[in-house]
Amino acid sequence: MTYTVIFEQGSTSWGAYVPDLPGVITVGKSRQEVEILIQEAIEFHLEGIREMGLPIPVPASFAGAVEIRPAA
C-alpha cells in the first residue's frame, strides 16, 4: 500500500504529514530524518488500527504540481 506523504521545509526543520491518515505527522531536522520518522509513524498508526479491528484506510490522495506563470 502506498500513501501520499506531504513534506514541508520550514526555516529550521522539516515536517511531513499523510492526508489519508489524519493525525499522522512528524517533524525532524532533515528531510532524510523525516522520511524515516513518517514511515515509522504510518506503520505504528496502521498497527493500532488493526489491533482495534478497524478497516485500514485505502490511500486516496495524490500530490501534483500546478505551474503559475508570473504576471506580465
Describe what you observe in this structure.
- It is a single chain.
- With 72 residues, the chain is α+β, with helices and mostly antiparallel strands.
- The protein has a domain at 6-51.
- Helices cover 29% and strands 17% of the residues.
- The chain is built from one helix and three strands; from the N terminus they run βββα.
- The chain has one helix at 31-51; strands at residues 6-9, 14-17, 25-28.
- Strands 1-2-3 form a three-stranded antiparallel beta sheet, covered by helices on one side.
- β2 (14-17) and β3 form a beta hairpin.
- The chain is flat.
- The protein starts with 5 loop residues before the first strand and ends in a 21-residue tail after the last helix.
Question: Topology as H/E string?
Answer: EEEH
SS element count, helices: 1
Mass-distribution shape: flat
| Count of strand segments | 3
pLDDT < 50 stretches: none
Report the mean per-residue pLDDT as an integer.
Answer: 96
Q: Report strand %.
A: 15-25%
N→C terminal distance? 44 Å
- Largest sheet, strands/sense/barrel: 3 strands, antiparallel
Spatial strand sequence of the major β-sheet = 1-2-3
Features:
about 30% helix; about 70 residues; three-stranded antiparallel beta sheet; alpha+beta; single chain; flat
